[in-house]
């Protein structure tokens, strides 16, 4: 069958069964051609620090009184293109929030009771250092566990905690919670974590947005996709588990059952082989075993996939033919669909479609998940790698509840954690198995210091709380996983006089703990930015201050793997080595492969290691992100809370009718990990049997003070870990109260 650029008349009937026209105008927070700043304000340039692949280039208005005003996307940045999300556009609301932490505090009552005494910075740091020294003397250096994550994505302010960790031989930190299934699945396929220039989404004929609600969480993806639609007539396909705002923007919206994405990918490849869309010449040159894959996919028919995914056969056929007849198809593969226990397999299968079709050969074609491997930034001095000891245990951040409640496996068969320093994260809210997490933090023998911007629920459980700067108040450097630039984040305004940077805390503790003479200590944030850039053979701070960012996108041939994929054999691997294959963030050798890795398939396939619904737990629950929150950030701001309303559970009308549940009713949902009460929002945006809880609300915003992570599990995703936060089987009943 000849390959064409658009579906022919014989297949139009297949497309007719799908939603092939976007339904709502897009709500963009900041227009591309933003108004110029007023003459009485100066304009500062920086980067968004939050945990989002876009890492938007920002323009910040700074008023004569030294306070920030409007924040908008940089027009002259080729990826941000002047568009940012609404929550960051109103950042002044967060920076000047009346509840922002301003002084160091010492707990005076019971843990969590909210009784505090204001103390000096010297006293706070002295007490933290003293607690660490006592814990080490009593239980060994591994009893101290510095814990952090992505509250800021700036390298200096985020990662300097590791330098103190290694200098003092404190317990290691396996940062598994967010990225591992996605990164592992993609890298098993390509050998590296990079792909076609993300700006090519604006120069394609079809964009497949798979497993990410880009309208709510990565608005720049939509900016470029809509550019292709307007200028080229490109089609936008969205694949997700409910009818979210991105689905409403799509020409073709495919709602699959949670954890079944690999089945859809396999059926699409089956059709490609069956109907002559597969690029056999391309695969013969660039893939490891196309013949084996074709044989494997013989039984993976649209009928087979329809029974698994909940899609109709017509929808699957239409999707496969659109891909097969549109050579310039850009697969934008998100994180959401990988946060299942088969997430690595799903990512690998979705990326494989681009290889079967030969899409990588074309501008605007191929598969993209993250560009993390293109930046080649050297953080060895910053993180103190020369002092790292491989014998020190690594504790999985996702299993903090288990570790703090004495689980021997989580603790690597070693002693307890009795002291912690926490920066840039809020585990009492965001970590799975919340009841275990809270029980662990309530231990009387556990000392906790939290460096934070607000009194989060983690800070409420601390012994010492110290106030942290925000991104416009310190220097840092950023790289963008979802785009292609390194961006400078210079200090733009003065912080409150009693607030300190993450780096300050690490440096001061190093002095008190006697390791400030070790490599990497003694530098300012600006100095450390320069040292990282110099070690990476990049221009220095002053160059970035003038030019704002540095484009690191490789040449077309490398981005599209036309010189071969990054495996030693130069091939795309349809047959991954799930136990020994490459991944950016493997667990330490002493831990080895994780989860039910022995069940992972030799070729792309659906593998039901997920929490399959059963008689006792007939619903599948996903904890999807909200538009106005970012993890637990922004949940403290008035506008974000007002726009989100309250914690609610999205439920299909048929399920509600079967349970005699009405809109707004209070229901109780639960599983083996716990249960909670939540109000129901009845909507046909979710399919029967699926429940969606949007937004990581504070636990205290829920009816009984327990949030949705009571229901999520910390068992690791095979083969290299990660938290399956969207993969939960639950029961539900109307609350009798």
UniProtKB/TrEMBL annotation:
- Signal peptide range equals none
Q: Which GO molecular function entries does the Swiss-Prot or TrEMBL record give?
A: iron-sulfur cluster binding; metal ion binding; molybdopterin cofactor binding; oxidoreductase activity
Stored SMART domains: Molybdop_Fe4S4
Query: Origin, by domain of life?
Result: Bacteria
Domain 4Fe-4S Mo/W bis-MGD-type positions: 41-99
Per its UniProt record, what InterPro entries does this chain match? Answer: Asp_de-COase-like_dom_sf, MoPterin_dinucl-bd_dom, Mopterin_OxRdtase, Mopterin_OxRdtase_4Fe-4S_dom, Prok_Mopterin_Oxidored, YoaE_C
Q: Name one Pfam family in it.
A: Molybdop_Fe4S4
Q: What is its EC number?
A: 1.2.1.2
Q: What class of enzyme is it?
A: oxidoreductase
Query: Transit peptide: present as a keyword of the record?
Result: no
Keywords for the protein's UniProt record, in alphabetical order: Iron, Iron-sulfur, Metal-binding, Oxidoreductase
The entry assigns this protein to a family as follows: Belongs to the prokaryotic molybdopterin-containing oxidoreductase family.
**Identification of the protein by name:** Molybdopterin oxidoreductase
Organism of origin is Rhizobium favelukesii
């Amino acid at each position: 069958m000849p390959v064409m650029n658009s579906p022919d008349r014989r297949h139009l009937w297949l497309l007719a069964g799908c939603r092939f026209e976007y339904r709502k105008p897009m709500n963009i927070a900041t227009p591309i051609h933003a108004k110029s700043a007023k003459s009485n304000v100066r304009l500062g340039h920086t980067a968004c620090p939050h945990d989002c692949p876009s890492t938007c280039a920002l323009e910040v208005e700074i008023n004569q009184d030294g306070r920030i005003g409007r924040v908008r996307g940089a027009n002259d940045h080729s990826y941000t293109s002047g568009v940012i999300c609404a929550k960051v556009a109103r950042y002044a609301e967060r920076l000047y929030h009346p509840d922002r932490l301003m002084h160091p505090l010492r707990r005076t009552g019971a843990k969590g009771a909210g009784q505090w005494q204001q103390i000096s910075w010297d006293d706070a740091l002295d007490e933290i250092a003293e607690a660490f020294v006592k814990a080490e003397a009593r239980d060994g250096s591994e009893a101290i566990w510095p814990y952090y994550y992505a509250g800021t994505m700036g390298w200096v302010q985020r990662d300097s905690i590791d330098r103190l960790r290694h200098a003092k031989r404190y317990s290691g930190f396996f940062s598994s919670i967010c990225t591992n299934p996605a990164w592992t699945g993609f890298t098993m396929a390509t050998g590296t974590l990079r792909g076609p220039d993300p700006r090519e989404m604006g120069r394609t004929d079809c964009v497949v947005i798979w497993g990410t609600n880009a309208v709510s969480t990565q608005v720049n993806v939509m900016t470029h996709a809509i550019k292709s639609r307007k200028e080229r007539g490109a089609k936008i396909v969205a694949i997700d588990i409910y009818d979210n705002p991105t689905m409403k923007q799509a020409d073709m919206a495919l709602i699959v059952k949670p954890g079944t994405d690999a089945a859809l990918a396999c059926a699409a490849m089956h059709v490609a082989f069956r109907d002559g869309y597969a690029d056999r010449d391309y695969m013969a040159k660039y893939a490891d075993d196309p013949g084996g894959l074709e044989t494997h996919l013989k039984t993976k028919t649209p009928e087979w996939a329809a029974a698994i995914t909940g899609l109709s056969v017509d929808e699957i056929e239409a999707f496969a033919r659109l891909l097969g007849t549109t050579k310039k198809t850009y697969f934008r593969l998100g994180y959401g669909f990988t946060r299942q226990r088969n997430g690595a397999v799903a990512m690998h299968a979705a990326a494989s479609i681009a290889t079967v079709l030969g899409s990588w050969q074309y501008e605007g074609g191929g598969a993209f998940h993250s560009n993390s491997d293109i930046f080649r930034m050297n953080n060895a001095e910053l993180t103190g790698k020369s002092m790292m000891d491989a014998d020190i245990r690594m504790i999985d951040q996702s299993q903090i509840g288990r570790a703090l409640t004495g689980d021997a496996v989580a603790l690597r068969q070693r002693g307890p954690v009795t002291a912690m320093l926490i920066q840039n994260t809020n585990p009492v809210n965001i970590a799975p198995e919340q009841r275990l997490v809270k029980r662990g933090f309530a231990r009387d023998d556990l000392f906790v210091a939290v460096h934070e911007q607000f009194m989060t629920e983690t800070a409420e459980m601390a012994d010492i709380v110290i106030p942290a700067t925000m991104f416009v108040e310190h220097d840092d450097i950023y790289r963008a996983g979802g785009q292609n630039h390194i961006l400078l984040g210079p200090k733009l305004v003065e912080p409150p006089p009693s607030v300190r940077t993450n780096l300050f805390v690490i440096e001061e503790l190093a002095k008190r703990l006697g390791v400030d003479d070790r490599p990497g200590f003694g530098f300012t944030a600006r100095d450390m930015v320069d040292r990282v850039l110099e070690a990476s053979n990049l221009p220095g701070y002053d160059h970035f201050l003038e030019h704002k960012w540095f484009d690191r996108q490789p040449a077309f041939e490398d981005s599209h793997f036309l010189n071969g994929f990054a495996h030693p054999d130069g091939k795309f691997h349809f047959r991954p080595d799930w136990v020994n294959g490459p991944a950016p963030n493997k667990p330490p050798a002493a831990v080895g492969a994780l989860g039910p890795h022995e069940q992972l398939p030799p070729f792309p396939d659906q593998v039901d290691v997920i929490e399959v619904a059963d008689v006792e737990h007939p619903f599948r629950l996903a904890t999807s992100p909200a538009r106005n929150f970012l993890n637990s950030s922004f949940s403290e701001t008035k506008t974000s809370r007002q726009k989100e309303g309250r914690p609610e559970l999205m439920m299909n009308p048929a399920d509600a009718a079967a349970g005699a549940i009405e809109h707004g009713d209070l229901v109780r949902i639960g599983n083996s990990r716990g249960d909670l009460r939540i109000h129901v929002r009845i909507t046909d945006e979710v399919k029967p049997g699926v429940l969606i809880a949007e937004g990581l609300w504070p636990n205290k915003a829920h009816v009984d003070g327990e949030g949705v992570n009571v229901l999520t599990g910390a068992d690791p995703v095979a083969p290299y870990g990660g938290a399956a936060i969207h993969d939960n089987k639950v029961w539900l009943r109307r609350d009798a109260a």
